[in-house]
Write a structure and sequence with these properties.
- Nucleoside triphosphate pyrophosphatase that hydrolyzes dTTP and UTP. May have a dual role in cell division arrest and in preventing the incorporation of modified nucleotides into cellular nucleic acids.
- This protein has one domain: Maf protein.
- The protein is built from 6 helices and 7 strands; from the N terminus they run E-H-E-H-E-E-H-E-E-H-E-H-H.
- Strands 1, 2, 3, 4, 5, 6 and 7 form a 7-stranded mixed β-sheet that branches.
- The protein is of the alpha/beta class.
- The two termini are about 15 Å apart.
- Helix 3 packs across helix 4.
- Helix content is about 30%, strand content about 25%.
Amino acid sequence: MVSLVLASSSPRRRELLAQIGLTPARIESPDIDEAVLKGEAPAAYALRLAEEKARAVKRGEGEVVLAGDTAVAVGRRILPPAENEGVQRELLKLLSGRRQTVITAVATIDTAGKLRSRVSSSVVTFKRLEASEIDAYVATGDGLGKAGGYAIQGRAAGFIRFMSGSYSGVVGLPLFETRALLKAAGVDVL
């Protein structure tokens, strides 16, 4: 029997896995350097981090490791996570009325040690945000610590004028790609 190891401390990733009937046998948060390399494109960045996170978790016999990473980009500029309210406010000002690309990469390492990965890319467009809307959103604490400074599954959903792609990918784990990778790795998933 194959056991799933989730290489992430994100509660959203656990909730998304539950949507496809999976509960990780073990959760481990990998400690890797998440700095952007000079000239690194957003998709390459997300893919590199997902693969590094998968490799950073010790895999036991009969275990499949699943890791993911999400990057929010405006053009080629990768936006940082909102580490505090000041950064979050600046990110929301930047995203106001603009189109952004949300890239989530997923990587698995199967029981034989084979690494597989996929990238999901979605387009999200915010409405023009008034200063009072930004202030009210920042005051909720929703989006702190998240790439781009917002959580689409929270109150920021009311700011989304347009979205194309994978909603679950924007939340943090594209379920279509994840399911395919897990099936290929031998995990029993519907």
